[in-house]
Design goal:
Elements (H helix, E strand, L loop, with lengths): L9 E5 L3 H11 L4 E6 L10 H6 L4 E4 L5 H11 L4 E4 L3 H6 L4 H7 L4 E6 L14 H8 L19 H22 L7 E4 H9 L4 E3 L4 H5 L9 E3 L5 E4 L7 H21 L9 H8 L4 H10 L4 E3 L10 H5 L3 E6 L3 E6 L3 E2 L46 E4 L7 H9 L3 E6 L10 H5 L6 E5 L6 H11 L2 E4 L3 H7 L3 H7 L4 E6 L14 H8 L1 H6 L12 H25 L2 E6 H7 L6 E2 L16 E3 L2 E6 L2 E6 L3 H11 L4 H9 L3 H10 L4 E3 L5 H6 L1 H5 L3 E6 L3 E6 L4 E2 L2 E2 L13 H7 L4 H9 L3 E2 L8
Helix pairs in contact: 1-7, 7-8, 7-21, 10-11, 14-21, 19-22, 21-22
């Protein structure tokens, strides 16, 4: 058992899939003693490189839970544990006699963390925990423009990567609540909630929706990607025209030729000379362009295949890539911890090493965690009473603090007098700001230092994603704030990590989709690299930062004081590459590759078109393809495609059932139906609130259920400066002081709450 923040915590992981395995890894490498219940030793889990990463640092226990003896031994194990982490469906657990009420009755000390395909209690709660099925059924495969009409197969497993963090975050939140004597409760999440997290900036409706609200971040959105002379594509996120080579090339073209080229390609705020840029980039190789653009502080990264990032010097320097010896794969390069914290997260043993659990291991009182409260039900949201100062902007910072609010924390969003720059895009802004209070302050004014000081004394957590040189200038660096409040948990979200030559570089979701290989792999064989408008690198980073923040809060609550924690786009993005690892010779372990038509990765894990819609098949078993060939009397994928095009969706799903292939309808244009579905409303998957500008707003809802109750925001998205006066009053400012701050334009009170 590794020493770490969770070193006194005992976890039983009973799982079969990606999300639960990665959630277990996060807990294990934070110090928890995670025992993985192991059934079939010959299963694919033992031979896949992905599980060589996700099952690291755990111990294994062989238990045949199909037998009464095995189930009773599992109960014995659970009686000594703090946490049960599972993705076994409710119907399967009921069949084995381990339904939720039995667990609660026999093991009242347990925090039960569940990951399903859909939320517990939903009509689809027993759907297999599989990204292909969940993303298809939810309609999220129809939210990305592709190379053809219709839904496209999302190569990135949105649901699993999101729900893994949600499960780990919810678990640590429950540990914090338990340690504070506020009771013990369970937490559940699901792949659909994990996938909805990055969809929050895409799916929304409003009673008084403006065209900008409806259309921002639409499927037709373009991304500034350009092909260089060597065929390599690069992704740009700031204007390239001032870079030396580009500037010279534009001068050489002249105004008339630039206008001709721009007439062929409409520009935008990043690349106003899009057409000319496109023409010029093809005149030199990518290496030349990258050096030129980086020298001019242009935010850019190349679109590379999966796995190239393992050789990145910045990633290795920050520990986001680690050298690790594996009994099956030998010397490897694998993703390291996505969070920086003390004591650090660390990998302590390979997944397939001999590290069995023995019956006597948990028999000693010395190893038990300290339960600070009796096993009473936790009635409140787990972070009720926690106070957060959010100085972040755009998405990777503010999304984490929005989720702190969902978990019950009081979050004050500190923004400039003109507001968070993301306010220019109402749709995206709404996806990461609900539940907060807005305090508008001119942080550059010297008088703002007193507001910052009082806010720091008030807060348990300060969280932001401002580049550190700017944070120092504003007086919100860790050294300054920790001197004011030594118990502060200070989380900084960076682009490239805290060390190395790129530590202060700007970063954007798009650059890390490019650098991690997901734009390349998600596009399909031979296609131009494709940005995913879900912005999942931003969200992965936000979730990683939230996990680290709560670890720090738990550690502080246990008497270890405040500290600085961190997460980055590079670190969180790199972990998503873990379905392949780099071997000693520089080669990569195999991983699924999307086909050119973006239909899928195999004959039985793919989309099929029917005469009245689409279906998604989701099986990795060789016999499934044999069965499908037999039932269709077709021997090729093209033949099966033609066969299914003659069937209705209902008949295609029936065919899948005959072939024992899990399948679902791949819904299209599904947002409104999703928002109106009674089962989704009942489980809190849709949030409704009133907002001054847009009236009643509907958007993506709860990401967790706590003992069956959805964690929904108490209020909606704040107007700029809506709570300035209230916040200043709570910080101890008098009415006269507040009027003076407003008069001198140091704060903005846009609701005119100060009486003259």
């Amino acid at each position: 058992m590794s020493e770490g923040i969770l070193s006194k915590i005992r976890v039983v992981e009973w799982s079969g899939g990606h999300a639960c395995a990665y959630a277990g890894l996060l807990l294990a490498e934070s110090g928890a003693d995670v025992v993985l219940i192991e059934g079939d030793e010959s299963g694919p889990r033992h031979n896949l490189a992905s599980f060589a990463v996700w099952d690291r640092s755990k111990r294994r226990l062989k238990r045949n839970c199909e037998t009464p003896e095995g189930m009773e031994m599992l109960h014995d194990l659970l009686s000594e544990a703090d946490i049960l982490l599972t993705d076994i469906t409710p119907s399967e657990r009921n069949r084995l006699g381990l339904c939720s009420h039995i667990i609660k009755h026999r093991h009242p000390q347990l925090i039960v963390t569940e990951i399903g395909g859909w939320p517990a209690g939903h009509t689809l709660e027993d759907v297999p925990v599989d990204d292909t099925l969940v993303l298809a059924e939810a309609g999220l495969m129809d939210e990305q423009a592709g190379v053809r009409e219709g839904p496209i197969y999302l190569r990135f497993p949105l649901g699993s990567w999101g729900s893994a963090y949600l499960a780990a975050i919810g678990t640590v939140a429950r540990l914090i609540q338990r340690a504070r004597g506020k009771g013990i409760g369970g937490v559940s999440t699901s792949l659909v909630q994990g996938a909805l997290a990055p969809s929050a900036m895409l799916w929304r409706t409003a009673e008084k929706a403006t065209p900008a609200f409806k259309n921002s971040m639409g499927k037709s959105i373009r991304s500034p990607q350009f092909e260089c002379g060597d065929g390599v594509w690069i992704h740009i996120k700031s204007t390239p025209d001032h870079a030396p080579l580009m500037h010279a090339a534009l001068q050489e073209l002249g105004a008339e030729r630039i206008a001709q080229l721009n007439a062929e390609e409409k520009g935008d705020h990043i690349c106003p000379n899009w057409g000319a840029n496109k023409h010029i980039f093809k005149t030199r190789p990518s290496k030349v362009w990258l050096e030129d653009l980086w020298s001019a502080d242009v935010a850019v990264q190349p679109d590379v295949p999966m796995g190239h990032i393992y050789s990145d010097a910045q990633a290795r320097l920050n520990g986001y890539v680690i050298e690790f010896e594996d009994p099956i794969f030998g010397k490897t390069w694998q993703p390291g911890a996505p969070v920086s914290i003390e004591p650090p997260m660390r990998a302590c043993r390979p997944a397939s090493s001999a590290s069995p659990w023995r019956d006597e291991d948990w028999s000693s009182e010395a190893g038990k965690s300290h339960i600070a409260c009796p096993p009473d039900a936790a009635l409140d949201l787990p972070l009720k009473g926690v106070k957060v100062a959010d100085f972040g902007a755009f998405l990777a910072g503010p999304f984490a603090t929005m989720m702190l609010s969902d978990l019950g924390a009081d979050v004050v969003k500190v923004e400039g007098l003109t507001g968070d720059p993301l306010r220019r895009n109402d749709g995206a802004f709404f996806g990461c700001q609900r539940g907060k209070r807005s305090l508008a302050v001119n942080l550059k004014h010297e008088t703002a230092a007193d507001i910052i000081k009082r806010l720091t004394k008030w807060a348990d957590i300060v969280h932001h994603n401002i580049r550190l040189p700017a944070a120092h200038r504003l007086g919100i660096d860790y050294m300054k704030l920790s001197a004011i409040n030594p118990d502060l948990i200070y989380c900084h979200v960076s682009a490239y990590g805290p060390k190395g030559p790129r530590k202060d570089w700007p970063g954007y979701d798009q650059l890390f989709q490019a650098q991690t290989g997901w734009e390349f792999e998600g596009a399909g064989k031979g296609n131009q690299p494709m940005w995913h408008r879900f912005g999942m690198m931003d969200h992965q980073c936000a979730l990683a930062s939230l996990f680290g923040t709560l670890l720090g809060l738990y550690h502080r609550d246990n008497g270890h004081g405040g500290q600085a924690v961190g997460a980055s786009l590079l670190g969180a993005g790199l972990m998503t590459v873990s379905e392949t690892i780099m071997l000693e010779d520089g080669s990569l372990t195999p991983y699924p590759v999307l086909d050119q038509q973006q239909m899928g990765v195999s004959p039985t894990r793919r989309l099929y078109s029917c005469k009245d819609g689409w279906v998604a098949f989701a099986s990795d078993m060789p016999e499934a393809w044999e069965s499908l060939q037999h039932h269709t009397d077709e021997t090729s994928v093209r033949g099966v495609e033609h066969y299914l095009q003659g069937l209705s969706v209902v008949d295609a799903l029936a065919l899948a059932g005959h072939c024992e292939i899990p399948a679902a309808e791949a819904r299209t244009d599904n947002r409104d139906r999703f928002f109106e579905d009674p089962a989704n409303l009942d489980r809190g998957l849709v949030a409704r609130f009133n907002q001054s500008k847009f009236g009643q707003v509907e958007m993506v809802g709860s990401f967790w259920l706590f003992d069956g109750q959805p964690a929904l925001p108490q209020h909606g998205v704040p107007d700029l400066g809506e709570h300035t006066v209230l916040c200043l009053e709570e910080l101890g400012f008098s009415q006269i002081e507040i009027r003076n701050l407003c008069r001198d334009k140091i704060v903005a009170d846009l609701r005119n709450e100060v009486a003259e």
